[in-house]
Design goal:
This protein has about 140 residues and is mainly α. About 60% of the residues lie in helices and about 5% in strands.
Length: about 140
């Protein structure tokens, strides 16, 4: 059961393709119905969480995309932001056509700024591990 939940569920369970979003996006572009469904569900869930946070914070000024899909997924960023147009979120499609580069990708007339901010998760884990090991008391 643990293997099914951790390795065979989520976008892989829906798409039947991969856990790698690049593979799923390629299959969706080729017209694969399960891949399209997996991405649609993923985009809906992410945009729903952003909307819930916006409600809890009584508004939203900036959306930041980071890590794997956020840094390298222009298709997903566009789909998520399109779902949030009612908040005044507008992407500049030309600026959004990038992977792994820090930059603002919102349109000039967007009410909400949209940014890509690359991360280095491995470096942060290493720094935190060093901190824990160094400060053992």
């Amino acid at each position: 059961m643990e293997n099914i939940l951790n390795k065979e569920s989520g976008v892989y369970g829906i798409s039947g393709i991969s856990v790698d979003f690049r593979d799923i996006e390629n299959e969706a572009i080729a017209g694969g119905e399960e891949a399209i469904l997996a991405l649609d569900i993923y985009h809906y869930i992410i945009s729903s969480y952003i909307a819930k946070c916006a409600v809890a914070m009584n508004g939203i000024d900036v959306i930041t995309f980071t890590a794997g899909v956020g840094e390298k997924g222009p298709i997903s960023r566009k789909a998520i932001c399109d779902s949030l147009k009612f908040f005044g979120v507008k992407l500049d499609d030309e600026l959004n056509d990038v992977k792994g580069e820090e930059r603002e990708i919102s349109a000039k007339d967007s009410k909400v700024k949209v940014w890509i901010v690359p991360t280095n998760e491995e470096l942060m884990i290493a720094k935190e591990t060093k901190e824990i090991i160094t400060n053992k008391d």
